[in-house]
């Protein structure tokens, strides 16, 4: 019942324009079963295996990768991106394609998508999903700090960091942002999607703890034992180089500071859109009074910065001048 109400609310608040809806592809039940098998076989392995979840939480994660992420991308991300610049015919580099839900959402609208990820299991699922949906996309297993070396310049109209910057080390994050900006021609778009904002007071992405993203990495590692999230709090007890990297790749917040280091002062960047400016009142409806007050406070502290840098998650479209 609760899921049905949430689904109806999304349909009302985030209607998909008919021009986009008509392009959405729908696999048959056998195709969905094939994707589910690929997720179970290739993605839900090792620390992500079913044994590390309660039955309810495992089903939540399975359904998210099977269909819910694609539905969310179709309702929220695709209309937002398409309004900034029509997706049809765009050459897009998708950094962090994961299991391919977002790739399908972009490609079915006529974009030419190259998806990269360092997760081999996720890429196997992405390739299987693309085949089931009948979309043409290129997938490569490379680290985002190899962008310029791998692709060169002027190949893409948009470069999208799709829920990926938070899973990088700081060195990777700075290098990939710097190189992505260099790769774009004037007028090209750099897009950041679903990256938790380090400045925000609550970490809803990784730990589900207040102030977690404010903590230094090593302290956050140790403090993770207090997280309410299963398959997280129990994993990071002994601090080693391997466990420290695994912890960072689970997701740490980022803020405008990385963009200033990698690209330049954010006051001079052309922000085409943020998700909050795109949604307007619909965004405010989902915020609590504390959320609105806190964002307003950040805006008073940094009055010359686009308000999209003060949302709980960074959803930004930047145009290169």
UniProtKB/TrEMBL annotation:
Gene3D superfamilies membership: Vaccinia Virus protein VP39
Keywords: Methyltransferase, Transferase
Molecular function GO labels: methyltransferase activity
InterPro entries xrefs: Methyltransf_25, SAM-dependent_MTases_sf
Gene Ontology BP terms: methylation
UniProt xrefs under Pfam families: Methyltransf_25 (PF13649)
SUPFAM superfamilies noted in UniProt: S-adenosyl-L-methionine-dependent methyltransferases
Domain Methyltransferase, chain residue ranges per copy: 92-188
Protein origin, superkingdom: Bacteria
PANTHER family with a match to the protein in the record: METHYLTRANSFERASE
Name of the protein: Class I SAM-dependent methyltransferase
């Amino acid at each position: 019942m609760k899921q049905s109400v949430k689904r109806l609310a999304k349909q009302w608040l985030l209607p998909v324009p008919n021009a986009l809806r008509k392009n959405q592809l729908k696999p048959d039940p056998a195709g969905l079963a094939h994707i589910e098998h690929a997720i179970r076989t290739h993605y839900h392995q090792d620390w992500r295996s079913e044994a590390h979840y309660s039955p309810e939480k495992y089903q939540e994660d399975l359904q998210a990768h099977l269909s819910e992420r694609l539905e969310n991308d179709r309702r929220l991300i695709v209309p937002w991106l398409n309004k900034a610049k029509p997706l049809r015919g765009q050459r897009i580099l998708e950094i962090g394609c994961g299991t391919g839900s977002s790739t399908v959402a972009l490609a079915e609208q006529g974009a030419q998508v190259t998806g990269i990820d360092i997760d081999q299991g996720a890429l196997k699922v992405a390739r299987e999903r693309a085949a089931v949906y009948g979309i043409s996309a290129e997938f490569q297993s490379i680290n985002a700090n190899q962008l310029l070396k791998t692709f060169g310049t002027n190949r893409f109209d948009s470069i999208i960091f799709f829920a990926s910057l938070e899973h990088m080390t700081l060195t990777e994050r700075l290098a990939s942002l710097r190189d992505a900006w260099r790769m774009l021609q004037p007028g090209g778009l750099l897009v950041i999607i679903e990256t938790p904002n380090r400045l925000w007071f609550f970490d809803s992405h990784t730990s589900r703890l207040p102030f977690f993203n404010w903590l230094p990495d090593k302290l956050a590692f140790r403090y993770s034992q207090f997280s309410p999230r299963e398959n997280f709090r129990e994993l990071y007890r002994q601090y080693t180089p391997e466990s420290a990297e695994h912890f960072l790749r689970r997701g740490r917040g980022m803020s405008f500071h990385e963009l200033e280091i990698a690209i330049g002062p954010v006051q001079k960047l052309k922000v085409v859109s943020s998700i909050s400016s795109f949604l307007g009142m619909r965004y405010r409806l989902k915020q609590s009074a504390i959320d609105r007050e806190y964002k307003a406070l950040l805006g008073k502290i940094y009055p010359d910065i686009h308000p999209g840098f003060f949302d709980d998650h960074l959803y930004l479209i930047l145009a290169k001048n």
